[in-house]
Write a structure and sequence with these properties.
The chain is mainly alpha-helical. The protein has a single domain, classed as Hypothetical Protein Ta1238, Chain: A. 53% of the residues lie in helices and 5% in strands. It is built from 5 helices and 4 strands, in the order E-E-H-H-H-E-H-H-E. Helix 1 runs antiparallel to helix 4 and helix 2 runs antiparallel to helix 5. It is elongated.
Length: 191
């Protein structure tokens, strides 16, 4: 159980923050950037859920993913160490990655085939999901940048990669299973 009695602590006034393990780092640290971008993705999903309330598949799926993203943020905020106790450290699991893959396949099975790239847009739900997808891709890039210099649990990276794919097919579902997708027409606006 998480208990938050005080919202402000003043500890960040000088540009520092603490990771989940208590280590003090700059707010510009790559680890902070990675879990901060995951938080942004989560906020975008909150907005997208406002537009998916009537979708019996997407709405609860996005709610579950928002919870997963808090797990992912906790994972990224706590650098992995050798011989850590899995019961004491919250990490994203391979099972969560596999579940995303299964959901991608389920959603994609009902979508119209693509013959061009999809422009973000269509319905409000699809536009919000595309925005979440692009922010998720940024979070993935931030996590990969972090992984080049510090330990990151592999399932966390996989999860972000699969999530952006899921958000793409979810946006297409929100566009009447692709019927309302706005397609890119290469060179259409050249004079």
């Amino acid at each position: 159980m998480v208990v938050l009695n005080r919202i402000y602590t003043r500890t960040g006034d000088q540009g520092a923050t603490r990771l989940a393990n208590g280590e003090e780092v700059s707010k510009t640290d790559l680890r902070v950037e990675a879990y901060g971008s995951v938080d942004e993705t989560n906020a975008c999903l909150g907005l997208a859920r406002l537009h998916t309330a009537g979708d019996v598949l997407l709405h609860p799926l996005l709610e579950r993913i928002q919870n997963d993203l808090f797990d992912l943020g906790a994972d990224l905020a706590n650098p992995p160490v050798d011989n850590e106790d899995p019961a004491r450290v919250l990490r994203v699991t391979e099972g969560q990655v596999t579940r995303l893959e299964q959901e991608i396949d389920q959603i994609n099975a009902d979508l119209a085939p693509l013959n061009s790239f999809v422009l973000p847009g269509g319905t409000p739900a699809a536009a919000a999901l595309h925005q979440a997808r692009t922010v998720c891709r940024r979070a993935e890039r931030a996590a990969i940048s972090l992984a080049l210099t510090a330990p990151v649990a592999t399932p966390a990276l996989k999860y972000l990669n699969r999530l952006s794919d899921l958000l793409f097919v979810a946006a297409r579902r929100a566009n009447a299973n692709g019927a309302l997708d706005v397609l890119w027409t290469p060179g259409a606006t050249r004079g």
